[in-house]
Amino acid sequence: MKILIAGTGALGMLFAAYLSEKHEVQLFGFSKNVDFINNNGIKVITPQSTKNYKNVRAFSDPKLIKNEKFDLLIVVVKSFSTKDYYDALGEIKSNISYALSFQNGIKKEEELINFIGKDKAISSACTIGATFTDKGAVKYTSPGFIWLSLYEKTNPSAKFLENLSQTFANINFPTNIENDPYGLVWNKLVFYSAGAAVGCLTLLPYHMIWNSKSLCKVFLDALKEGKVIAESEGVKLFDMKGLEVISLTTMLSEDEATEILNGKAKQLETRGLRDLRVSMSVDILRQKKTELEFTLGELYHRGVKNKLITPVIHTSYHIIKGLEELYLNKERNFLYKYRLI
Domain 184-337 adopts which CATH fold? Predict the structure, then answer.
């Protein structure tokens, strides 16, 4: 398979590195990482080993690939940068057979369909995580899951999806094919936003959040609010492995749901994933622009539109927005100055 990955951040580089062992992979991005990748390869650090991958070509000028054809485009850029990437790749989109986006939020799907067409768009969600070390290596932080679905199912597209699922499974990324392309991305949004509601205010990793009965209650309340918002938009959520929105909000008592979250915390500890955080809290710690408006903010605004009472989502949205406004626009280092972190 010939694969084009848009985004030279940690997750894009992780996918590029692993897929490059059996496939031809090219990375497109605007960052300084392009030259770094071409000169040094991609070093991936896992709890078990460190390996350097040198089979990936990176570039920042789409004209370099204008005559090439790709079986798959994977988009892994920050949500607020999507338009810039699609604009840059517009002239070659006819050379792409299928495309998917592992970005956060739900607007990514509309943007993907507008770019590539519904017949070529693959709905997807991903909980695999990666971050950079201070020396430019990629640290594989979260061995999660991938979910895929089709907006328009044909025999060729269904066969491609099966092959793609196996391709991800071959690099130890467990992948499930779902029937509902809309519910799939909403499930991820609701679960991610509950994590952001707690993680961005406490700046704690998941295993500590899910080890606290009080913080589990806040997480579950945010999850329930997200479910109500989804239903107000006509979306039917369902359980996906690792993202058990329905079980945690409707099928189990609060004590039972808390016990499930405690179990998730123990699994993270056992696997050595003590530093696993929701990505927005990492952005806050690094005083970077977050994806607030594409995730938790998406739920907040839809809740307001539908006149729903969502105290956890409402409060956490405004606090996170306030923090971001302060460190981006007014007092750059206040988190450190006042010893908040």
Answer: N-(1-d-carboxylethyl)-l-norvaline Dehydrogenase; domain 2 (1.10.1040)
Instruction: Identify the bridge partners of residue 58 per DSSP, sorted by sequence position.
Output: 27
Which fold would CATH assign to domain 2-179? Rossmann fold (3.40.50)
Binned at pLDDT 50, 70 and 90, residue 142 comes out as confident
Domain residue limits, the chain: 2-179, 184-337
SS3 of residue 179 by DSSP: coil
Q: DSSP per residue over 197-264, as a string?
A: HHHHHH---HHHHTT-HHHHHHHHHHHHHHHHHHHHTT-----BTTB-HHIIIIIS-HHHHHHHHHHH
Q: What is the pLDDT of residues 84-133, one digit of tens each?
A: 999 999 999 999 999 999 999 999 999 999 999 999 999 999 999 998 88
Question: Does the predicted model carry a pTM greater than 0.70?
Answer: yes
